[in-house]
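Appendix B, Record 12. Input sequence as logged:
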Amino acid sequence: MEMIRCEDLMKTYGSGTGAVHAVDGVSLSFEQGSFTAVTGKSGSGKSTLLHLLSGLDRPTSGKVIYQDNNLFQYNDNQLSVLRRRRFGFVFQAYNLVRELTAQENILLPVMLDNRKPDEAYLKRLVEMLDIDDRLSHLPGALSGGQQQRVCIARALANKPSILFADEPTGNLDGKTGREVLTLMRTVSSELGITMILVTHDLGVAEQADRIIRLEDGRVAEDSGKGAN
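Logged structural output:
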C-alpha cells in the first residue's frame, strides 16, 4: 500500500540564468513499511527532497500526497500538527534539550501534543533501542550513539507512519553508526513504519530495501525495490 508520493516536485532558488533547481521534476512513491535510502553527492538535492517530502519546506511547484491529501494545501499550523503526529524526524545533529533527561526528551513530542503517553509502547521502544538504563541521564552523560538512540525513540514516540532521517549516522563512528542504523531498521520494520533516509554513505544506503540516487536534483537511478 502506498504511504506517500510526490508528483513533479520542483524546488528552485533564484531566477533567470542564475536559478538553481535543487529538486527538478521528481516523481516518486513509497510503500508502507518500506525502507528507502536517498543518496547522491553533496549538492545533489537529497536533503532538499527529504524536507519537501516531510513538509519542512514548501516546493516551488509540484505535490506531495499523503493519505490522499496534498501537504501544501495545509496551512502552517495544520502542517505542524501533521508533522508532529504522523511524521518522525532523526537528524545528524541530535537536537536534544540539554536540561531534560533522556526520558523527558523522548516524551517531549507527546507532551507538546497534549496526549497521554502509551507507557507499554514506550517501554517496548526503549528496550528495543537498549536505552532503558539511560532514561534518567542528561544528554551530556550519554555517548553519541546513546544520544542518537534517544533521538530515534523521540521520533517514534508519537507512533508516526513515516520516519524521515537525514544523515542519522553522520556524527557517529563506523561501528556505532552501523548499530544505530540496524536498530532503526529493526524498530521501523517491527512497528510497520515507512523509513526514508538520506545519506552520502553507500555502505549505509546498501542496507535499505531500495536506493534512489539523485544527481543535480533529478533521479539518476532507482533500484525500484519497494516501488510501485
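The chain has a mean pLDDT of 91.
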